[in-house]
Amino acid sequence: MIAVFPSIQTHAFYLHLVTLTWFKDLNVPEMYGFLPNQVTPFPITIEDGIQLHAWHTLPLCTYLKHKDQPLELPSGFTEDMSRLNVQLLRENSDAQLVIYLHGTSGTIASGVRPDSLRAVYSVNPTRSMS
């Protein structure tokens, strides 16, 4: 039956209609243990016009180095990627880009995903990996 109806297969695999973050707002990453304005929720529009929800996360070492500046920003979802958090990474020659693909079902904040993101962004990029 699933092979006959591709839309059922898609929903079964990707779980589009399932929300695992009941009563939590993905536009308030502080609810998932991040520091104020450490994460900027923003959209990525793909070619068929669908918007994907993404988080731009400032590494902890960069956040702490500039801890007074990010707190001055408005928090929450934005389409303005010229915000201070993005500028701080552009100006940091030690910054490393990490694209975290969280899987096929649920949301970026489901299960252990926020813990995984915090672990990745807590690493000090200036330390030598040996």
Structure description:
Strands 1-2 form a two-stranded antiparallel sheet. A hairpin with a 5-residue loop joins strand 1 (39-45) and strand 2 (51-57). The protein has 130 residues and is of the alpha+beta class. 25% of the residues lie in helices and 11% in strands. The protein has one domain (6-121). It contains four helices and two strands. The longest helix is centred in the N-terminal third of the chain and has 9 residues, at 6-14.
Class computed from helices, strands and strand pairing: alpha+beta
**Helix-strand sequence:** HEEHHH
Distance between the termini: 52 Å
- Gyration radius, in Å: 17 Å
Shape: globular
Tally of structural domains: 1
Question: What is the percent of helical residues?
Answer: 10-25%
Provide the low-confidence segments as ranges. none
The tally of strands reads 2
Q: Strands, helices and their partners?
A:
Blueprint: H1 6-14, E1 39-45, E2 51-57, H2 60-65, H3 84-91, H4 113-121
Antiparallel strand pairs: 1-2
